[in-house]
Specification:
alpha+beta, Butyryl-Coa Dehydrogenase, subunit A, domain 1, Butyryl-CoA Dehydrogenase, subunit A, domain 3, 3 domains, seven-stranded mixed β-sheet, 11 helices, 9 strands, 53% helix, binds flavin-adenine dinucleotide
Length: 344
Amino acid sequence: MLTQSHPWCFQPEHAALETLAAGFRAEGGIRERVAALGAAGLLQPRDTRSLAVVRRHLAYHAPLTDLAFVIQELGCTPLERAGALPEVVAEARAGRRVLAFGLTEPNAGSDVRGIETRAERDGAGWRLTGTKHFISNAPDCDGAVVFAVHEGTVGCWFVEAPPTSAQSVAAHSIGRLELDGTPAVRVAERGFGLAFATLERCRPSVGAAAVGLAARALDETVRHVHARHQFGAPLAALPVVRLRVAEMAVELELATLATLHACWKRDAAAPGERTAASSAVGKLAATEAAQRIIDAAVQLHGGAGVEEESVVQQLYRAVRPLRIYEGATDVLYTVIAEAILGPA
Ligand SMILES: Cc1cc2nc3c(=O)[nH]c(=O)nc-3n(C[C@H](O)[C@H](O)[C@H](O)COP(=O)(O)OP(=O)(O)OC[C@H]3O[C@@H](n4cnc5c(N)ncnc54)[C@H](O)[C@@H]3O)c2cc1C
């Protein structure tokens, strides 16, 4: 338990939440998992360390449940920050409404200044036209927060039941928002501040999900190297295997510390204070380490590690997108460099 191994970072309420998250299990698709998370009270608004303790355990047991959890957070945060649509937020946090967060477009990935989705007035309301892609939970969503351009400024809107089409990414629910004069409610005239604040809040928790996946990989590996015998002894008796496992444990601890530090910095920030660089360090360090840990786990499982049904094979597929979404590693390096060196 993070709250026991790293007590310096937490308050008593984090420990209670971690116990709840560690014992939580849900089955079914995104909709069923969001409903179960809401019923358990896990979707209520909390600080960044809370997101981390929850994600660490959800990702450990079921990456799809972790996805259901965090996308609700990505959907609710901009609405809450803008003070918009409180009834939508209440339903989403109760698990009765699935939300999506629509920022990325075919021509606007890492560079979101390229957003082309247009917002136009329609009497007292608005209509949006454009395509968002790689939108997590789009195929299951009841509503989406969408960033679009109006008169040269990127703003934020909410779209009820957006038209969607599915995309295919392993172990993920993902798709496009196909907006074609689709009615929308304006959330905020200026959207980038909301989008970046939301990412800054959620980014360190991506590190926590990575830590959960990596911790599972280490546990699976420990079990495997004790159970599997070669050369007349368990793999765990081989010096190189022992070294690899120790390396995995060291990497996991460093990833955990980087994540918790980023979460703590976010929670300790004064209102309006930016934490872009520390959030970037936490996400980058933990997701890159988790990839290496899980790769080592696959290696130590041998052929069993690439079988379809093997847990470490599933972890290998689950961890990869974490190094791309919410700021690709290479982009995060530019954020960190800018904090140290100033603008390029
Ligand atoms: C599984 C998954 C879930 C996602 N969920 C959502 C979601 O819910 N909502 C949403 O809005 N988006 C979502 N995304 C989109 C995600 O945020 C983008 O994929 C990401 O921002 C990268 O954009 P891109 O794919 O267009 O890559 P590109 O921008 O084309 O970049 C490709 C690569 O080029 C390099 N690169 C790009 N820019 C720079 C730079 N400035 N410096 C150095 N290197 C650079 C990086 O290596 C980068 O990975 C999701 C993506 C995935 C894979």
